[in-house]
Specification:
Layout (H helix, E strand, L loop, with lengths): L8 E2 L15 H12 L2 E6 L2 E6 L2 H11 L3 E3 L3 H7 L8 H15 L4 H22 L2 E2 H18 L6 H16 L12 H22 L11 H7 L10 H29 L1 H16 L11 H13 L6 E5 L3 E3 L2 E3 L4 E4 L1 H5 L14 H4 L21 H18 L1 E3 L8 E2 L5 E2 L4 E5 L3
Parallel strand pairs: 1-8, 3-9
Antiparallel strand pairs: 2-3, 4-6, 5-13, 6-9, 7-8, 10-13, 11-12
Length: 433
């Protein structure tokens, strides 16, 4: 895209797209902007002039240019709550923290997480099959919270720490909804979240001190404690990184799983096809982490990631000059990219608005081409774990029955902070015929 031989034009000359209707239909506004202006244009986001990057080629160029030129842009609220977590770090500190976190979240670590995950998932999907209709997103958030606590901290659902963690974490998550600027100080959620942060840090430290025996087994904490034992101060404390990992593992994965089950409920033929494959997981759970295992379930997961990327926009700030679509972006410029805008690019994904998992089975598309977990220097390290959680839950649920939405798919959707139904969404597992 960029023409490095010609002098780039200033970003101030980028076409400016109006933000009218963005709150009600953000994807429609983003798509209209890219149809009119191409991969890069300007638009006010939350009242601030922002360079928007979309289309498949635009995202590829952004991630190729990101290292050393773009930093994650977070609000003062996020810095207060998460401290020196990975996404708040820059430069060498960011790289050092990623290096120490990566082994516990990589594909090589996943086989050890399968048994504890299934221990949590089995009872939950049993309840889904017994209880009839209940709110889908609420059930999924509860389950992903329990899975995250088990795999990252070693907390089993039956122990006392499970209730303490769940209560404190709920207060912490609620605090992320406080106003991002100075008004946060007048919001009760902010102060409750700060208190919960202290309680969670204490819980993490206590669990970390117990990792020598790793009583729960199959948890990432022991490896993370060892990885950060000699970490420099610039890499941030492990407790802050755990907060970031836990909220991403719960909220982002809950969004992904919700939409997987919505799409399977809306496309019964795909659900039946996937269910026949899911039954094999009961006999051989290792299929969940086999590279060529579960192609049908993986295609459903990939197509859901394409259609329903959990994060609508990811914010960056230029810290060095860079060029995007032959426009010079100056330091201090706010830049945002939308995975959804790239995933709906018909040049990369024909008939992009349709749910067509087969595109990932026939070789028309590759899951590696999806940007739902970002790319470049700030790509999400938790992608392998999130995908394992989603596959394991889908497989367990489909072993019990086919997803069913008695009232149909959600009528109202919230796109930020993570894509989710606004209203309770009745859901049930129906025995397959």
């Amino acid at each position: 895209m960029s023409d490095q031989t010609a002098a780039p034009t200033p970003a101030a000359l980028l076409p400016r797209h109006p933000a009218d209707g963005f709150t009600a239909d953000p994807l429609g506004v983003l798509d209209e902007g890219h149809c009119r202006h191409g991969p890069v244009y300007r638009m006010p986001v939350d009242g601030v002039d922002t360079v928007l990057v979309g289309t498949w080629a635009g995202l590829g160029e952004l991630f190729a240019a990101e290292r050393g030129r773009l930093d994650v842009l977070n609000t003062p609220l996020v810095h207060d709550l998460f401290g020196r977590a990975l996404f708040n770090l820059t430069a060498d500190g960011h790289g050092e923290a990623r290096r120490r976190l990566r082994p516990a979240l990589s594909g090589r670590a996943l086989p050890g997480y399968v048994p504890p995950l299934l221990d949590v998932i089995g009872p939950a999907t049993d309840r889904w099959a017994r209880q009839g209709t209940a709110d889908l997103h609420g059930q999924v958030r509860e389950l992903t919270g329990a899975m995250s606590a088990r795999v990252l901290l070693g907390i089993t659902p039956a122990e006392a720490d499970a209730d303490q963690f769940a209560a404190a974490f709920e207060e912490f998550v609620a605090a992320t909804g406080a106003p991002p600027g100075p008004a946060r100080y007048a919001d009760r959620r902010y102060w409750a979240g700060r208190s919960a942060r202290r309680d969670l840090h204490a819980l993490f430290a206590r669990r970390a001190a117990q990792t020598a025996g790793d009583a729960a087994g199959g948890a990432a904490l022991a490896g993370l404690v060892a990885a950060f034992a000699d970490a420099p101060a610039g890499a941030g404390p492990l407790e802050d990184h755990l907060l970031a990992l836990l909220i991403a593992a719960r909220e982002t994965t809950a969004s992904l799983l919700t939409w997987c089950l919505v799409e399977l409920a809306s496309h019964r033929d795909h659900a039946e096809y996937a269910a026949s494959e899911a039954r094999a997981v009961a006999a051989d759970p290792a299929r969940l982490v086999a590279r060529d295992g579960l192609p049908v379930l993986r295609s459903v997961l990939a197509e859901t990631l394409r259609l329903h990327a959990p994060n609508l926009l990811s914010m960056r700030e230029a810290v060095c000059p860079l060029t995007l679509a032959s426009h010079r972006i100056e330091p201090g410029t706010r830049v945002a990219y939308s995975p959804s805008a790239g995933h709906f690019d018909p040049e990369a994904f024909p008939r992009p608005r349709q749910f067509r998992p087969g595109r990932f089975l026939t070789g028309q598309a590759s899951a590696s081409r999806l940007w739902a977990f970002g790319g470049g220097a700030h790509a999400c390290l938790g992608r392998p774990l999130a995908e394992l959680m989603a596959l394991a839950v889908m497989a367990a649920a489909l072993q019990k029955g086919l997803p069913h939405l008695p009232d149909g798919p959600p009528a109202r959707i919230s796109f930020r902070p993570a894509k989710a139904p606004i209203d309770p969404l009745p859901f049930a597992l129906e025995p397959a015929s």
